[in-house]
Design goal:
This is Fe2OG dioxygenase domain-containing protein. 25% of the residues lie in helices and 26% in strands. The protein is of the alpha+beta class and 231 residues long. Bound molecules: 2-oxoglutaric acid (AKG) and fe (ii) ion.
């Protein structure tokens, strides 16, 4: 991994809410179990890199103490081709943010994954062989006191063929209290989220019609914000 080029999309450079990793493997040649194990290792290293980006030596300071009990969930989604041809594109998965610390996404060559820029435009994430997409999720947004932004994304189906994706969600353990450490908040800055229990947030998203999986209506800022965030 140390030699793996990590390139940031310029429009996300400030928030690092999405980046691409070039890797020489293909999920087609592995069992899901092997793939999952690799994702666990990769997630740990990505979290380390993310922590480094937040502050000097923070990977040593916080990786073990805060992220050691993370759990991974792998979701394989097969999108059937849209039946209706009236629209140019059909939403296969509505706009949402992930309820994870980070998510690693493999999409096949059909494409369709899109990220929303801060300005609200949809940006195609064009599939590229051997490349995975990494999203920052809501839990990391909460834990980093909003320094990292959970990415808003969706899937649009533009072609009349099956599409396959594998999303690996790397999450805090259910009972974890998500609270940004003082160093992450930084001296002179205000804390923008109150502490919350991870499972309670997941329940909030699942029970609240607006906060449900495919809706971005309510996310971590609606659940735990101490004051209105500047958009
Ligand atoms: O199918 C994809 O490319 C993305 C899937 C996704 O965003 C998700 O499962 O949360
Ligand atoms: Fe997602």
């Amino acid at each position: 991994m140390s030699n793996t080029p990590v390139s940031f999309y310029p429009q996300f450079a400030v928030y690092s809410c999405l980046f691409c990793l070039s890797l020489s493997f293909s999920p087609h040649s592995e069992t899901l179990q092997e793939y999952g194990s690799k994702m666990v290792e990769l997630s740990k290293r990505i979290v380390e890199a993310v922590l480094m980006s937040l502050g000097d030596g923070y990977e040593r300071k916080f990786n073990e103490s805060e992220f050691n009990n993370c759990q991974g969930y792998l979701r394989l989604v097969n999108y059937s081709p849209p039946e209706c041809v009236e629209d140019e594109e059909v939403e296969g998965l509505g706009m949402h943010t992930d309820m994870s610390c980070i998510t690693i996404v493999y999409q096949d060559e059909i494409g369709g994954l899109q990220m929303r820029s801060k300005g609200g435009e949809w940006i195609d994430i064009t599939p590229c062989e051997g490349t995975l997409v990494v999203n920052i999720g809501d839990l990391m947004q909460g834990w980093s006191n909003g320094r990292l932004r959970s990415s808003e994304h969706r899937v649009v189906l533009k072609r009349f063929v099956n599409r396959l994706s594998l999303a690996f969600f790397w999450c805090f353990e259910d009972e974890k209290v998500v609270l940004a450490p003082d160093e992450i908040v930084g001296e002179g800055n205000s804390r923008i989220y109150k502490p919350f229990v991870c499972l309670e947030y997941l329940k909030f998203r699942e029970s609240n019609e607006e906060g449900k999986y495919e809706k971005v209506g309510y996310t971590v800022k609606d659940f735990a914000a101490l004051k209105l965030e500047m958009k």
